[in-house]
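Exercise 7. Predict the structure of Glycoside hydrolase family 2 TIM barrel-domain containing protein from Lentzea sokolovensis.
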Amino acid sequence: MLGVVVVAGLCAVPPAAQAEQVRPGGRSVDFTGGWQFALVNTNGDDAPQPGEHDPAWRDTRLPHDWSIGLDPVEGPHTGAGTGFLPGGLGWYRKAFTLPSRLAGKKLSIEFDGVYMDSDVYLNGVLLGRHPYGYTGFAYDLDARTDGTPNVLAVKVRNQVPSSRWYSGSGIYRDVRLVMTEPAHVTRHGVQVTTPELATTIKSGFATLRVATTAVSETATQAEIVSTVRDPRGRIVGRATTRAALAAAPSTTSTDIRIAGPALWSVDRPDLYTVDSEIRVHGRVVDTVSTRTGIRYFAFDPDNGFSLNGVETKLKGVNLHHDLGALGSAVSSDAVVRQLRIMKSMGVNAVRTSHNPPSPQFIRACEELGILLQVEAFDTWRSPKVKYDYGRFFDANSSADLREMVHAAKNSPSVVMWSIGNEIPDSSSAAGPPIARRLIDDVRSVDTTRPIVMGSDRYRRVPAIGSPQDQILRMLDGLGLNYNNASSIDELHTRYPDKFFFEAESSSSTSTRGYYQDPDQLNTGENHTPGRRNTSSYDNNLETWTYSGEYGLKKDRDRKWFAGQFLWTGIDYIGEPTPYNVFPVKSSFFGAVDTAGFQKDFYHLFRSQWSSEPMVHLLPMDWTGHRPGEPVSVWAYSNADTVELYLNGKSLGERRFDEKTTVSGSKYLETTEATGDDKNVVTGPYPGSYTSPNGSAGKLHLTWSVPFQPGWLVAVAKRGGVEVARDEVRTAGEPHAIRLTPDRRVTKADDRSLAFVTAEVVDRAGVVVPDADDLISFQVRGGGLAGLDNGRQESAENYQASSRTAFNGKALAIVRSGQTSPVITVTARAPGLRTATTLIAAIGGRPGPVRDTADPAPVPAPAPAADASYSGAADTIPAAMLDGDASTYWSNYYLKRATGLLPAVSRAHATDWVSLPVPEGGPAGSVQASFRTDASHALPASIAVSYWNGRTFVPVRDAKVEWPDGQPASITFTPVRSDRIRLDLTSSAPGTAQGFLAVSEATVGR
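Solution. The predicted structure, encoded as tokens:
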């Protein structure tokens, strides 16, 4: 779209001194530096570009996400689904000059991604609009080459909600200036395929078919030379073809035989490079390098997925595109870190939910050996949220889908294209025609990979002729979202020519280091402010979800099932299911939290997906228990036997049985009823998931251990020989901060990142599992790119310079500078020993060393009412203090039934509430009004303690009186404290009648 617009300040050119002088050094120039940014508003209202001298302009380097630097807030333009982080409207501008030698060249600007709804201008002329935030785009530039500054301006508008999760806002992917001769390869103009590789490899060779699309502004004869280099950079093939080039693009293909090719695989991701040259009259006028891999794969409806002829389960995860504290601003270092963590879990595949990924992400998957399902859309025509892509779908989806395929068509990682996720239109009459168009769009670019979609609308076999039936018959395969075992068996029977896999599996939620009700298969949520967590025993499930163990077993037992993509590999910002309240702003689904710290869920999947011997104990906290309290201890392991020791004394061995699937695969599992599938009504284990071989069991081993402080050690054995061990220790008082960088050397390029873990430890170096100290970070020789701690409930700014530890840990993301050979990271917290770590930075240039400030700690808030557990959002501790007898704190919860599990409502044996002491103390009494009804009963007993600055200590001479019809009166020897705690024991634990409720409570002298 071209046109001249009149916008205030749009044509203003900053002084020439501010313009970047472009120095061509190849086909393209990195265009991420030298930008300015102005955030006009956070509500998304349209607005003109600020004037040239407006103080809103700030120097900015791309990639950039303006939303991640804002404070999470409640308001009309934010919500839990997008992490309470605002969007808005922002303007970017960049002034640059071009040398005269570029006159007559073909110039274009390429954006890898702008979120979203962008308008791009050059010198006041609108180049075009691009609504979709996840696809790349390019515009030709009619730029000045006489030394006069050019101004590129980009308007970006993110009206929240534009997505169901956190999207980020701005030019969040790379930008480059492309300079070619009039005769050149077009954008995405090289396509490399390996026809008949499954056959030719048996004869020891591969055929690389290189299709090159090129143009010339004036008709000319050209040679196209294609050169293939192997993973070591050696030339292993070359071919030359002739082409008549004109203004209209034309494609020329050639076949190159590669002898003894190294096949790309998840274990050996060998990559080849194809250099495509355009030669006119013997002169090279353009060169494009394309990276690819030689591999073949198949999805077989009866035998599942195979790679290079080897049957391979897809051990996959879903990943959204945010990078935790960095937001959506893409960083190769952050992407590689995330994927390496996933790979260490045993992951071999990723689904890019629910949008096309960045080039950096694709590149990292190629290098690490990770398979990809690349997905196009979360919505078609019918929107899911007010401002999403549905507004633009009809006009733009074909172009965006083709762009997605072009951008990744040469990647050996990509094995599937997905045309959508959980699409409402797929159930309507409009769905099949849209699906047909999208499928044709994909195949117009690539015919070598299957086309699928992810759907939650096939939990029953669709009626013949229904929209779902029509669409499935068009697709090559289908990704199922949260189907139970019987439903996938029924689909396999009805559609024997289609392959199936789980596009989203499990969705069990958890918080790192939080444990609740291990004896229950499903449990309620804690709604106490500051304690809004979910259990790490794989037992917090929504109505549509199921446990990780169930999903692993279901997948394992079916050879024809291609595999699964866990929802999700890593927590992401937004969609904080099961909570919808400020400041809970990130998801609970991940096996790893947003900081990259492993949860227990990570180790469950590692035990099933990795062959490296391992064992993992949970709970990871062997500190926060009372002496003698029975603790349910689990062990995840891929060894057949685990022996548990407490302070050197054996607590006995537990053993998995070795079993065999009906297709002949060996696996380890206990043999016992599991109670995890109420739909199973026959066989030896009614109510439990039962394998086709007739067996049932668990993927973990269990002990009940009376707590004693000390060392708890798990020793895993194979054939009686130790192969792995894990231990947890009781922590003492917090003493120091320990810093551990993920690398000791980085590049001094002002963009490379190091990830520094901060841990609060006791004098023996044991991480204090409940430490929440406020840690301030200072960086010399670089800068802070972001801070995180993995906590889902947090209003802290990701780009502040201090962060509280969460369950003993925090993360500092450190960006290198350009001038200092050493980056020094220092972490401080009141009362703790300071820590410092050094990272070498190589390749910099001399100059002043950058130093970030070390801020003063933020004072802790005054104590308020608190509770160990609140069963609902409207029965939180504050209800005890509001003076309204009709409101109350309660630990009552009702967890709704899921597709596999019944509803549950079981009173805890104990819970506690704490109350603030009025200023001027001391405290010597408590008046508490308890509520009784069909669900709530009076406590069987009450114990009283006070906060001594570090822990709760029992009071002396506590007496409890229950006057008829009056509040309970509790007296004790007066203490000086700011908090009094009541530990309440249920009179009917484990029942639906033993819950506790307090409507009013006050502390007196």
